[in-house]
Structures are given as structure tokens and as C-alpha cells.
NmrA-like domain-containing protein (Colocasia esculenta), 172 residues
Amino acid sequence: MMEQGLIGQYAVPILEEKSVWGTDAPTRIAYMDTQDIARLTFIALRNEKIDNKLLTFAGPRAWTTQEVITLCERLAGQDANVTTVPVSILKFTRQLTRFFQWTNDVADRLAFSEVLSSDTVFSAPMNETYSLLGVDQKDIVTLEKYLQDYFTNILKKLKDLRAQSKQTDIYF
């Protein structure tokens, strides 16, 4: 899974002090940076040993929604305003919206509720993949590192903007 979507879903709302939507699902996802996915795919396409092999890409650790929110809170230095939606409500809403043609699009978008309620861990061991591709696991960006870099950069920019704003304020 891609980490980039987590910025808009969790990091930005926390920084803007808006609601962060989460679920009570125990499902765990091993997020992986899209840049790493692209790099590994490129290496695989150029590697003759990989012909006709199925490779699974996954990040080094699987996270629940609440764990991702907690990590973002720590890195942002502020609490999130979390709105938790029980998965059962998402599933019920999906079933309800499937009855009407004009709400089929909503039902399709709620299909992820079936995945969330499955109590599945979306992860895979990567040792064999790393070995086949000749990649060191240390070169793969972890979710912690990715979000830490984001929050470090954005908080520095916000601090710089505040400093510039104070310099241009005119008081009478």
C-alpha cells in the first residue's frame, strides 16, 4: 500500500485541527512508499531471474488505523480530533446503498468495509523478494521515517511562514 495517501487522510487534518476519520477495525496494513514500489518494480523488470515470478511488495511493519493516527499525533506534537466510525455501520450503509441504482457509486466506495471487517493483516514477508532483487531492507523507507520527514519539513515551513508573517505585520 502507498504511504502518500496517509498525508491527506491523517497528517493534514491533524495539522489543520480538523477531524480525522478512523475505524475500530483491527485490520493491519504494511504501507510502502510509492517511490520504493516504483524502484523495486523497475529492478524486477530489468532482472532476468524474475521472469514469470509473482512478487509481493509490502512495508516492513503492518499498522492499524489507530496506530497510524497515534504516530501522526506524536510527530505533529498535537492531539487529533478523531471521529471513529464502527466498521459495522460502514457495512450496513453499504448494504443499504446497494438497493438503489443511484447510490451504487456510494456502495462501491464502501466496498473497503468488507476488507476492514476481515481482521486480515495486509503484509507479506519480503526477505525472498529483497534477495531476488538484490535490495537491502535498510534502503526501504519505513512509515515512521516517511511521516517523520513529512512532519519535520512541514513544521519547519510553518515556523518560517510565521516568522515572515511577524516581520511584515504593521502595527499602528
In short: The chain is about 55% helix and 10% strand. Residues 143-168 form the longest helix (26 residues). Helices lie at 4-15, 34-45, 65-76, 87-97, 104-109, 112-116, 127-133, 143-168.
